[in-house]
Specification:
The chain is an all-alpha fold and 337 residues long. Helix content is 68%, strand content 2%. The longest helix is centred in the last third of the chain and has 31 residues. The termini are far apart.
């Protein structure tokens, strides 16, 4: 289903899966993440019913995001579901939300309508494109829906107050259900893994971003160097938080999905790369002060290098690592003006 797979020089057909996240490691990572959430939840003192509902819903959404990042698990699930049966996978993010809403006492028909519309519309669009090549209008419409409706998700998860974790997890699960399992879009690179050659591409991308964006950002009065405000002890958690809940979903959307599709439907892969990077930059225009053209400029430059990393490795993981390194460096060493 969908168009032919895009192959990149550094991601050959013979890539061994031993470099990728295996089923056992995926389950182990899921257990570790859920265990950390359970421990944190205990410290916050939530009442048992809400605590259990939050953990159950979180466990479902984390499973979707992590398990499908294992190529072996993803392949087995897509084969087992079949093209038509894959539509049913949209029920798993909706099921997670239902558990959350009922268990935390935050259920309303309005919120449920938002959740159903956000989850089912992209899946319906993906299903309607069955048999068409990648780049059909339904593919782009599904991505527009995922992005345009993202802001509405903040109304779905009022408990706990901080919904920083819930929004990207829910959106990523819906995108996976629609475009990976139903649409069977190829060349996304939704996988966790590492190869020695990827380190060079990632280091090169990070170095170029720093070499260009830092002087440009200072020259246009977007940032200033302010290492005195840095809290270095928070660096590991800052990096992991950005990687999981900002860099990973954004690289999935803008590189694995958007750049992937544009590279197949525009005049060239390079054209798709440039256009996707510009769109990525423009997505930052609404950051204060609006319109924030300075942010658009530095984000577009960074997006070109994230896209370069994805093209050279065929995986969103190294691109997300570079993205997280850039954002963590920015938060620790610079102050936004």
């Amino acid at each position: 289903m969908g168009g032919g797979q895009v192959h990149y020089p550094a991601m050959s057909r013979g890539t061994s899966q031993q470099h990728m996240l295996g089923p056992g490691a995926a389950v182990g990572l899921w257990v570790a993440l859920c265990g950390s959430a359970a421990f944190y939840g205990r410290l916050t003192g939530h009442e048992p019913r809400a605590y259990g509902a939050v953990l159950a819903a979180l466990g479902i959404l984390v499973a979707g995001a992590v398990w499908l990042a294992s190529p072996a698990i993803c392949e087995k699930l897509t084969r087992a579901a079949g093209p038509q049966g894959g539509v049913l996978v949209a029920l798993w993010p909706l099921g997670a939300y239902a558990i959350y809403a009922v268990g935390t006492g935050t259920f309303t028909w309005g919120r449920s309508g938002i959740a159903a519309a956000y989850a089912m519309a992209p899946v319906a669009l993906a299903a309607s494109a069955h048999g068409k090549k990648s780049g059909a209008w339904q593919d782009y419409a599904a991505m527009v829906g995922l992005y345009a409706g993202y802001g509405w998700l903040r109304y779905l998860f009022p408990f706990p107050v901080d919904n920083y974790v819930w929004l990207p997890l829910f959106a990523v699960n819906v995108a996976l259900a629609a475009l990976l399992l139903v649409r069977r879009m190829e060349g996304i690179g939704y996988s966790i893994g590492w190869r020695l050659a990827w380190i060079g591409f990632s280091a090169l991308s990070f170095a170029i971003i720093v070499a260009i964006d830092v002087p440009v950002g200072i020259a246009i009065h977007f940032v200033r160097f302010d290492p005195g405000a840095a809290h270095w002890s928070t660096l590991p958690l800052t990096f992991l938080g950005i990687l999981a809940f900002t860099a990973w979903p954004e690289e999935f959307l803008f590189r694995g999905l958007l750049q992937n599709l544009l590279g197949k439907t525009l005049w060239s892969e390079n054209g798709g790369w440039v256009v996707a990077s510009i769109i990525f930059g423009l997505s930052h225009i609404f950051h204060p002060i609006v319109p924030n053209w300075r942010y658009v400029l530095v984000a577009t430059i960074a997006g070109l290098l994230y896209g370069f990393t994805w093209r050279k490795t065929g995986s969103i993981f190294p691109a997300a690592v570079v993205h997280a390194l850039v954002d963590a460096t920015w938060h620790l060493l610079f102050r936004t003006l």
